[in-house]
Amino acid sequence: MTHYAVFLAVTERPAAPVLGLTSLAVPAGRLAEAEARAAAALTGLPPAAAWPDLAPAVRRWLVAGVRTVPHYAVDHIEAPVCPAGHPLADCLAALAVNSSLSGIAGRPRTVHLTGGRPPADVAQAPFLADALAVHSAAGARHPALARLTTLLATAAGPSVDGSLPEDQDLYQAFDRFTVGGC
User: Which of 59, 80, 148, 149 is the most buried (most CB within 10 A)?
Assistant: First the structure.
């Protein structure tokens, strides 16, 4: 049975208000290759680059480079933020059943978080609770894949609203992806 490494980035859009969960899944047997190819694809990109701020030629170049990164799937799921809700737990539950990653939800996986460990109230949420391990410092272990996941999080908005041509849509670099709501 294939083991997967799943990278997760949590983002917030306070103006919406929406919480987003971006994921990149890689077969664990190809993790070193994926890290090397992601590093090569991201070479020269400023550390805090956000997709909407990049020039069209740079976006095209990155889409072409990222196509070489071995992967299972990429997803971006959003949930509205409301006082009584649990948007991160909702997104994790949706990731397990209503995304491109649902096919590996029951398989062995290690989860790598960009930006630290999630709040304690979601530690038992689907997709985290049954993971083999949850690592809170993805950037220390796999800096290029963590950075790619964070870049994917910034690219979700333009992908959802269709405001970019396909050759500039970072999600189009992947064979299997889902972008949208919970």
Answer: 148
